[in-house]
């Protein structure tokens, strides 16, 4: 049986062997909730997920990216 760092078993075992996750579902949920992002509309285009706050400055100007 494969265990997570917290001591809980990684279930189902295919989660570790086939998918490559090294955490249990509980720890994986904590990691996922710690990730923050924002979705912004691009000018005359689609929506883009932003992870870096500095990338948001001037992103929706018609003339392009202005920093």
**Range of strand content:** 5-15%
- As a whole number of angstroms, the C-alpha radius of gyration is 19 Å
Q: What is the helix/strand order? A: HHEE
Largest sheet features: 2 strands, antiparallel
Please bin the fraction of helical residues: 10-25%
With strands numbered from the N-terminus, the spatial order across the biggest sheet is 1-2
Structural class: alpha+beta
- Coarse morphology: elongated
The number of helical runs is 2
Instruction: Count up the domains.
Output: 1
Low-confidence stretches: none
According to DSSP, the number of beta strands is 2
Give the overall pLDDT as a whole number: 81
Distance between the termini: 52 Å
Describe what you observe in this structure.
- It is a single chain.
- The chain has 67 residues and is α+β, with helices and mostly antiparallel strands.
- The chain has one domain (1-60).
- The protein contains two helices and two strands; from the N terminus they run ααββ.
- Strands 1-2 form a two-stranded antiparallel sheet.
- A hairpin with a 5-residue loop joins strand 1 and strand 2 (47-50).
- The longest helix has 9 residues, at 25-33.
- The protein is elongated, with a radius of gyration of 19 Å.
- The N and C termini lie far apart (52 Å).
Summarize the structure.
This protein is α+β, with helices and mostly antiparallel strands and 67 residues long. The chain is built from two helices and two strands, in the order ααββ.
Quick tags:
2 strands, two-stranded antiparallel ribbon, 67 residues, 2 helices
